[in-house]
Write a structure and sequence with these properties.
- The protein is 41% helix and 12% strand.
- It is built from 29 helices and 18 strands.
- A hairpin with an 8-residue loop joins strand 8 and strand 9.
- Helix 1 packs across helix 3, helix 7 packs antiparallel against helix 10 and helix 22 packs antiparallel against helix 25.
Length: 786
């Protein structure tokens, strides 16, 4: 039996009371028998039969078999509706994540805040259900979490005894969805909220739950008495009603006859809504209400304590505050006067208890071990495994990738970057922020009808996201030498030249060297789709879902999707993809400001993906911005491009071409390499860029002049890799040349000219030929310790 079904059977067998209705040994025997496929105890055989009957209902019921009326549903599945008892379903997790993670500006603080939240979501909450973590490093911590749960929630029956791992639907992306016995719904939701507060003090969390009958797990919310439920026969009559349409979704066709062959017909729209998805939607609404401070007066569960009062930390105008200037400081990271070997932190900063936990978690040693600190010893978790630790575990399981990534030194000698200064020193003072998010996730989830599909989808997306990042980092990066402390220090060490802020669900936030940013972003987007399509195999990872796009009667017009050699583009046939924002900036750029910019870039990339979907494109998109000479933007990126980089006279000219598809990003990188191969003078790059604002004809004339002056052979390289790849007219009968412009015909038949030249100049210094190994200038002729 599927794992989720075992969890459902356990909840039913436990009953609605705090004490199990059967002896605990019977429940354990039932669980073991269902796992191994053996005969279950006689006492619970009827319950297991009801669960098997539930599993026998197809995921996608045909129109002929779907119950026409609510009476048909009751008559077809009487055992499931009349099954005594209800099952609890709980949904919760952390809220306002970025507010907590990016509250402090230092890299170790951000790293520590992210690691704390990841550990709670991936280790602590599953430990409530007795699920052992993948890493053996957490064995002691696992026992402590279970002990904490029993100490804080030990009523008539211990909560830990009522929960098993098979109840977890998913626990990734900062949220958890799980079943539980009906009597423990409020207790479990309180435990989830309290765990976040107990470990982080200020991180916001929220959890809600409700009880449902067995038949509702497959057919959505049902009223009691069941005859009052709004069903398919009534929906056919009312589907044009605005209220009904808002709840079930708008149909693509106006009449039933015309939508029989359409993808969103009446029956399919109703069936998609009336499924397990409706239960999760109800919990999501409750989650938002509780997060906003509302209480549930009409809930059949006992009243829970309100969440409207956030934690309040005492402060005073004459007390020392921490570096964020928000809370009173409790400790200062100075050298230990009693033991000179115990050093503090540079600058001897002050910490509140909240920021001290972040810094302690962020300054961990290799393999997740927390360093002992004399200046703050009150809180000391044994292990907090970071993303670099997980990346190293990935490399150790893949020797070929380990050798490719770490062929210049021993992996054990490579350290984690101590600061953005150290990270930026590996790429001439510039770093890149990569922010990626999944496309079409909500649309795909709406088609999920069962808890098992939810679990499979969550695991598949989580695996695809994590391993896409690991593959990209191991493909394009190597450990780089950096100064151990400040520039006066002549000791140099190997460091991982990246920082993974978070990988949660379909969200990714990375900091990487500027010279590899676009290549890494492109690989992440491609690998994400290929892993889901099972075109790339990850040893030990099984993709369970089918994410292939259904065949379309309308052919995809590639020329409207890609501006770079569209005839060579590979059509993406994955239902899910990623949009990525990439910001390249000086390492001194404040992180909170960088965050605002890369979020805007992600939004722009998502808008591009949505526009291209009209032409059948389902792949990923990338938008990027390079801040080299400009230290800040006074407006949003969209307004900056509209006001400063768009000219209306005499033709409409866009002095930029972002966002790009993944195929176009690869072409942009190749075009920069072609300019370098052609030895195009760098001064003339900037000169042509200055001509862009003077109009289309002036720019074309000067570009042609500079190209004809190139050495023999170099002119042909530029013609092939840039002009013919990007700048050919849309009319195939037109043999003219627009370089460096591209023509885009908009929906109103208006022609707009845009160019990639400005962005080529921006990234020119960050793209190198072949396998270039970056060595900072201050490390030349200096021997690096291995």
């Amino acid at each position: 039996m599927e794992s989720i079904a075992i969890g459902i059977a356990w909840c039913l067998a436990w009953g609605e009371g705090r004490e199990p209705q059967f002896d605990p040994s019977v429940l354990q025997e039932m669980r073991r028998a269902l796992t191994s496929g053996e005969e279950v105890p006689a006492q619970v055989r009827e319950i297991v039969d009801r669960v098997r009957e539930l599993l026998a209902i197809p995921d996608n019921i045909s129109r002929e078999e779907f119950p026409e009326t609510i009476t048909d549903l009751e008559n077809k599945y009487p055992n499931l509706w009349n099954q005594p008892g209800k099952i609890g379903l709980v949904y919760g997790g952390v809220t306002k994540v970025k507010q907590y993670v990016f509250e402090d500006a230092k890299l170790p603080d951000i790293r520590g805040a992210s690691a704390l939240l990841d550990r709670i979501n991936l280790v602590d909450l599953p430990a409530f259900f007795g699920k052992h973590p993948e890493s053996n490093r957490y064995n002691i911590h696992f026992a402590k979490v279970r002990e904490w749960l029993d100490e804080n929630f030990s009523g008539e029956s211990k909560l830990s005894k009522a929960l098993i791992p098979e109840m977890i639907v998913y626990s990734t992306g900062g949220n958890i969805l799980a079943f539980c016995p009906a009597a423990f719904v409020n207790e479990l939701t309180d435990a989830i909220e309290k765990r976040y507060y107990f470990e982080t003090i200020t991180a916001n969390s929220c959890a809600v739950g409700d009880r449902f009958k067995l038949l509702e797990i497959r057919f959505g919310l049902l009223r009691n008495p069941i005859e009052q439920t709004f069903w398919l026969d009534k929906y056919r009559q009312e589907y044009k009603n605005p209220l009904v349409e808002a709840y079930f979704g708008k149909l693509d066709r106006e009449s039933k006859e015309s939508c029989i062959a359409a993808p969103s017909c009446v029956e399919e729209a109703f069936a998609d809504r009336k499924s397990f998805n409706e239960l999760t939607t109800k919990l999501a609404v409750m989650f938002n209400q509780r997060r906003s401070g509302n209480d549930f007066e009409e809930n059949d569960l006992e009243k829970r304590p309100s969440r409207r009062y956030p934690p309040m930390l005492e402060t005073h105008p004459y007390l020392q505050r921490d570096e964020s200037d928000r809370r009173s400081a409790i400790a200062r990271a100075t050298d230990n006067p009693d033991n000179r070997s115990e050093k503090g932190l540079p600058g001897s900063p002050w910490f509140s208890e909240v920021s001290a936990r972040k810094r302690k978690a962020g300054d961990r040693a290799k393999k997740g071990e927390i360093k002992q600190t004399h200046w703050y010893a009150e809180w000391h978790p044994a292990v907090i495994e970071g993303w670099v630790d997980k990346f190293e575990d990935f490399l150790e399981k893949h020797p070929v990738k380990l050798h490719k990534y770490c062929h210049v030194c021993d992996i054990e000698s490579v350290k984690i970057a101590e600061s953005l200064t150290q990270l930026g020193s590996t790429s001439n003072g510039f770093v890149a922020y990569i922010y990626a998010d999944g496309n079409n996730m909500g649309g795909y989830i709406q088609k999920i009808t069962t808890p098992q599909e939810y679990q499979n989808f969550s695991e598949d997306v989580d695996n695809a996201t994590r391993y896409a990042v690991y593959q990209a980092l191991s493909e394009h990066l190597h450990p780089r030498p950096a100064q151990e402390n400040d520039k006066s220090d002549r000791n140099f060490v190997w460091i991982h030249p990246f920082e993974i802020i978070t990988i949660g669900g379909d969200d990714i936030i990375l900091i990487v060297p500027a010279d590899r940013a676009l290549a890494i972003a492109k690989t992440i987007g491609e690998q994400f789709e290929q892993i889901l399509l099972k075109q790339v195999e990850i040893p030990g990872v099984e993709i369970k879902g089918n994410y292939q796009t259904p065949p379309s009667e309308k052919p995809i017009d590639i020329s409207k999707c890609h501006r770079y050699l569209s005839q060579n583009a590979v059509v993406s046939n994955c239902q899910l993809s990623t949009s990525i924002g990439v910001l390249i900036a000086d390492y001194k750029t404040p992180i909170y400001y960088a965050k605002k910019l890369y979020e805007q870039l992600l939004k722009s990339a998502k808008k591009r993906a949505k526009d291209l979907k009209k032409h059948g494109y389902c792949g990923g998109t990338v938008d990027f911005l390079v801040m080299k000479s400009v230290t800040a933007l006074s407006s949003s990126i969209e307004e900056f491009r509209k006001e400063a980089l768009t000219k209306d006279s005499p033709q409409e000219l866009k002095l930029y071409a972002a966002p790009y598809t993944l195929h176009e990003i690869g072409g942009l990188i190749e075009s920069v390499k072609a300019l370098k191969k052609a030895e195009f003078p760098k001064s003339q790059l900037y000169q042509i860029r200055s001509f862009l604002e003077q109009g289309k004809n002036t720019t074309i004339l000067n570009y042609r002049y500079f190209r004809t002056r190139l050495k023999d052979g170099n002119s042909e390289i530029l013609k092939k890799e840039f002009e013919e790849a990007w700048c050919k007219p849309k009319d195939p009968e037109n043999n003219g040349n627009l370089a460096p412009w591209m023509s885009v015909i908009e929906q109103n038949k208006r022609t707009v000219y845009e160019t990639i030249w400005r962005e080529i100049v921006d990234i020119y210094d960050f793209i190198e030929l072949e396998n270039y190994e970056f060595i900072p200038e201050y490390l030349v002729d200096v021997e690096v310790e291995s």
